[in-house]
Design goal:
Elements: H1 2-5, H2 9-35, H3 42-60, H4 65-101, H5 119-148, H6 156-193
Helix pairs in contact: 2-3, 3-6, 4-5, 5-6
């Protein structure tokens, strides 16, 4: 909460540097997982490259009126995104725990391959939070595009961040809808076989 009340550019730069580091480590981890046979969707790998770029641009955005205008919205979005990542972790670990208890997964498994009907309950809880986050990315993009049209806008970071948020919104929305549709269709096919 202090970050919202006190504006210190050094703390903001440290936060953005940590975001760059976080997304870089995710891309490295995903590259290792892919080389070991993981079937991570290509969008999620690209998503982390875009997020690394976005965090780097935010890191270089100089302190000024436009930065301060967007700062609280950016911090609020990141706080919400952290909450959603916690929910995703809770859902994923719960699915893995149940599959291990049923003897269908090993202790070293990190992700869930496949989908079972009982997973819909947790996923249906998670989806509204995901979609809200996706549309918040659209809102961030529109806000930044409007800021870019202001006569006092001289920073290139405003347009780059707006474009990055738009790419993230479109890719996340499309991929999430496609994955949910595929899981739904696979679940329907399984129920027809029974």
């Amino acid at each position: 909460m202090c970050r919202f009340l006190f504006s210190y550019r050094v703390l903001d730069a440290l936060f953005n540097f940590l975001l760059v580091w976080y997304y870089c480590t995710l891309t490295i981890r995903e590259s290792i997982l892919i080389s070991n046979g993981s079937r991570i969707k290509g969008w999620w790998v690209f998503h982390h490259y875009v997020s690394t770029f976005l965090s780097g641009v935010m890191l270089t955005w100089p302190d000024g009126a436009l930065y301060q205008m967007f700062r609280n919205q950016f911090l609020s979005y990141n706080l919400y995104q952290s909450f959603v990542q916690f929910l995703q972790y809770y859902y994923q670990s719960g699915c893995l725990y149940r599959l291990r208890a049923l003897g269908e997964r090993h202790n070293m498994d990190l992700t869930v391959e496949g989908f079972q009907s009982w997973m819909w309950r947790g996923l249906s809880f998670l989806l509204p939070f995901l979609f809200f986050g996706h549309f918040w990315q659209l809102y961030n993009s529109i806000t930044l595009f409007k800021m870019f049209q202001l006569p006092e806008c001289k920073e290139w970071q405003v347009l780059m961040c707006g474009c990055s948020y738009m790419v993230l919104f479109m890719g996340n929305l499309y991929t999430t809808l496609r994955v949910v549709y595929q899981k739904y269709m696979n679940n329907q096919d399984k129920s027809k076989l029974l």
